[in-house]
Automatic annotation (TrEMBL):
Source organism of this protein record: Vreelandella lutescens
UniProt keyword terms in alphabetical order: Coiled coil
Classification of source organism: Bacteria, Pseudomonadati, Pseudomonadota, Gammaproteobacteria, Oceanospirillales
Any coiled-coil regions, as ranges: 10-56
UniProt keyword Coiled coil present: yes
Name assigned to this protein: Lacal_2735 family protein
């Protein structure tokens, strides 16, 4: 019953993942490929964490 108000960590990670991808896209548009690569790598790490949490649930 008290788990009803517990925050979902996957939702927060998903939002962080989407923000990183957006920042990577903007860096790419500005011609900063090094920042694009760094941000994309960070986004992939977040995605791996999301997938790990999904695997623990199911």
């Amino acid at each position: 019953m008290f788990g009803l108000f517990k925050r979902d960590p996957k939702k927060k990670l998903q939002q962080a993942y989407e923000r990183k991808l957006q920042a990577a896209m903007e860096a790419s548009r500005n011609g900063d490929m090094r920042a694009n690569a760094t941000l994309t790598e960070e986004a992939e790490e977040i995605l791996a964490e999301i997938n790990r949490l999904k695997a623990q649930e199911g």
